[in-house]
Amino acid sequence: MVIAQADPPLRIELESAKDQQDYKFIPLSKYGVAVFYQSAILSIDTAQWVIIHYDTNLVRKNLFKLKLPNLCQYISADFSNDKLYLFLQKPAFKKDTLRNYILEWNIVTDDFQLFDLHNYKYPFRSSIKVVDDYIFMVINEQKAKKIVFYNHKTNTKNEWQLGDDELIAIESFTVDSIAKKTYVCLFLRNKKNTWAEIFVADYSGKIMERVVLPAYQDVIYNSITINISGKDSILLIGGYSNNRDKRQNGCFSGIFSMLFSKNRFSEINTYPFGALLEKDSSLNKKQLLESSLTMNMLVKQSNGKFFAVTQLFYPEYQHNVSSSHRGFGYYGFAPPTNVFVGFRFLNAYISEFYTKGTPLNEWFFPLTNVLTQSIYHLVNVHQDNEENSLFYYVHNNEIVSQFMNGQHVISAQSSTSVELLQRADILEYSSNLSMQHWYDNSFILSGYQYIRNSQRGKGKRYVFFLSKFILLN
Q: b/e string for 91-105 if b means 16 or more Cβ within 10 A?
């Protein structure tokens, strides 16, 4: 067993109304974890929010009741420099305009400050990063694609104007808090060309450099992530397609890496999937040729290395054939129909890179019986200080994991059931389960569960829960 709960399980439960998902939480590293939610409406203008602070053993340290503007919705959060920032939005209602707020909590002093972002009027739907007094917001919607540099203490704002070039997508955004720089990768186009470009700016949004990614005859950039790899140095990792590759959009040919340092790009390094897939005979080659096969990729840093996790999935349909008189219509029997049942995840391909982009390891991580109604990053990676790599995902109340050291198998792929609070508890169903690295060798699992208890007086309960898991070497 690689992942295990302590005995008794370190777990907390907060009861909720049936199928309501009102609770949010943010891991605070060794400060513990914060759970927050709106608890009551005090007046037409004011609502009460509760923030509960738990330590690393999920023992409650403090409970704060805050008065915030009514009708606010939680959008996103960021934790940096011992401060938790909650981004709240009050939608436009009747004659009121859209309002946005940042709630700042200093975890060391337990001081709270609410900032009204007067100059920010866009509906927020993407990501947020807070460093010092600056809020960096990425709006990557179809009708509004912008990078916003906002100082929430002075209410100063800066947005980029790119002239006649059309912004297709904000592909990646990263903050280097040591060099006090931001890096942005944009996909742009005009009447003549389409290209990817790296922008380097200071915290106020002043552009210091902009460099177009080099064009290669047989490489099309599908996705690009920016990763801080050293002083004034970033590593680009992404998916690419070959011009001769006939697969549909959404399924790329391989992974590339490219170093950007001192205003210069290194040569591109490409790692095609085709050659690598031949190394694993257990993969279903017929499924890999499925025309609707799609990929998504997550890049994360752990133990000073970079890991690119590429997941393969395809939309699955149930084929229905009408064989009764009910299917008989004006033109005869009704034709067969395909009903969408969910996205079937196949496997994950995991690549490990040094900070300069040199490949170190590659693995396949099979995904078993994973059928979901939405697409998301299912598989995650963590590497400890001894370069042992853990691959894991959560599905149907099971944690599936595998432990590797390079190509040496420490622990084969296995499943661990999520334990409940009481022995008599019987799980009816779970939803929104997710697990992430917390601190050191500890992980935190969250989600909602509907639980039945056969003991007299216990009945049924619908809860939001947090559980602590430990990585066993």
A: eeeeeeeebbbbbbb
Asked whether the beta carbons of 81 and 60 are under 8 A apart, the reply is no
Tens digits of residue pLDDT in 424-449:
888 999 989 999 999 999 999 999 99
Contact 239, 255 (CB under 8 A): yes
Q: In this predicted model, what pLDDT tens digit does every residue of 286-332 receive, in sequence order? A: 555 556 678 888 999 999 999 999 998 888 888 776 555 455 555 55
Q: Please say whether the beta carbons of 173 and 183 come within 8 A.
A: yes
Nearest CA-CA partner of 203 in 156, 235, 161: 156
Q: For residue 130, which of 203, 66, 37, 74 has the smallest C-alpha distance?
A: 203
Q: What is the pTM of this model?
A: 0.88
Give me the residues paired with residue 383 across strands. 389
Phi and psi of 29, rounded to 5°? 55, -130
Alpha carbons 436 and 306: distance in angstroms, whole number: 16
- Tell me which residue of 405, 468, 414, 461 sits closest to 441, measured CA to CA: 468
Question: What is the per-residue pLDDT for 281?
Answer: 46
Beta strand 225-230 with 24-27: parallel, antiparallel or unpaired?
unpaired
DSSP letters of 264-283? Answer: EE---EEEEHHHHHTT-TTS
Whole-angstrom Cα distance, residue 112 to residue 108? Answer: 11
Quote the CA–CA distance of 392 and 406 in Å, as a whole number: 16
